[in-house]
Amino acid sequence: MAEPKKLFIKTYGCQMNVYDSERMAEALGTQGYVMTDTAEAADMILLNTCHIREKASEKVYSELGRLKPLKDLNPDLKIGIAGCVAQAEGEEIMRRAPVVDLVVGPQSYHRLPAMEAQVRAGQKALDTEFPAEDKFEHLPRRPLPNRAPTAFLTVQEGCDKFCAFCVVPYTRGAEVSRPVDRILSEARDLAERGVREITLLGQNVNAYHGAAQDGAWTLARLIRDLARIDGLARIRFTTSHPNDMDDDLIAAHGDCDKLMPYLHLPVQSGSDRILKAMNRKHTAADYLRLIDRLRAARPDILLSGDFIVGFPGETDADFEATLDLVRAVGYGQAYSFKYSARPGTPAAERPGVAPDVADARLQQLQALLTEQQRATQAGMVGREVKVLFEKPGRMAGQMVGKSEYLHAVHVTSDAVAIGDIARVRILASGPNSLAGEVLGLV
Ligand code: 5AD
Ligand code: SF4
């Protein structure tokens, strides 16, 4: 029997790319590909790229430089670019980087098998259309032999919000929600194969409005239905826009046991002037009110966010307003970024903040967020949490999993296996994880 062809995928950026990489691997599986962990062993290398900030995009070009010599060693090796850089700059990459054989945009993954055949025949293949057909309908049903206990499930893609700094509406296109029945059947499949926690993904996931027989469903309604699936113990969703947190979704945090008490809700800035310039369409006070309502529904909810510093026009006073908002919310964890001008976005036309000022602000904000993260973790010591175990730890007898609040928790115990959920008392807090003792299985 001929050796199967080997596929290596390197994934950059967000969780949706992680999900997309799995689906691309499955699509190429139909062409006889199996996965390999090393680029050197591969017959096909796909870079699943991110365009969100300049640094993320640049990684593609440096990686292509590193991969080029592999083509001399293996003349049959094909190299493809997928993801948001493919969408935004695919044609240019094809022109400028002869090592690239294939460029596939995020909405065209279902065409990969045909494109693979084309490159094997010695041609180049490029597809960055937003095709009329739904790629999910044309991707193979998920084979998934034995799954890890956690999985991503894309329910919505694209964004109509047009924040002034963001490329997503251009690279991922307009908001599209997958139909309810497809999501439910994919979730049932995952649960049957041992998945206990599903994270629903979308660039603007809480704007979900998927078609069902009785009209369009909201994300809250979808979550309530997913919660009825046996075996599925936990549901999360990311990423959300504050303006799409409707009443039912807030209520679900209080009354849906399977919905985990953790919410990533980016605000980007605490200054109303900057929020307006960013086209966020909400104020800092709106956001704080929303946080109060979420905490009223679920007092222990842990909040996460995204922040941009150095957005064009940001003054010291604007930045202070961001620090004030962070102090008012008290984040369990958050991400902060230096503004990066992205070609084609409205903000890219405006003069930026001096780089050293932006650097200093980023440091100051990150210090505050790190302090809040440490304090939140330290506050878990002595508490009892429920941990879903995902993998063995580095030390013998150790197991690692995640609490409801998405904290990594280590235990030393032979009483728990991967996929188990156990009650755990937290004993200590390290820089990035917690340590605890198992009290019993749930
Ligand atoms: N510059 C810096 N950060 C950005 N983000 C999106 N676009 C940019 C940009 N041009 C950040 C936002 C968003 C997260 C995914 O990335 O904070 O929530
Ligand atoms: Fe980008 Fe999110 Fe704004 Fe959409 S809502 S434009 S994905 S930052």
UniProtKB/TrEMBL annotation:
Residues 378-440 form the TRAM domain. Residues 145-378 form the Radical SAM core domain. It comes from the Bacteria. SUPFAM superfamilies: Radical SAM enzymes. It is found in: Cytoplasm. It is an enzyme of class 2 (transferase). The keyword Transmembrane does not apply. [4Fe-4S] cluster 2 binds at C159, C163, C166. Belongs to the methylthiotransferase family. MiaB subfamily. This is tRNA-2-methylthio-N(6)-dimethylallyladenosine synthase. It comes from Plastorhodobacter daqingensis. The gene is miaB.
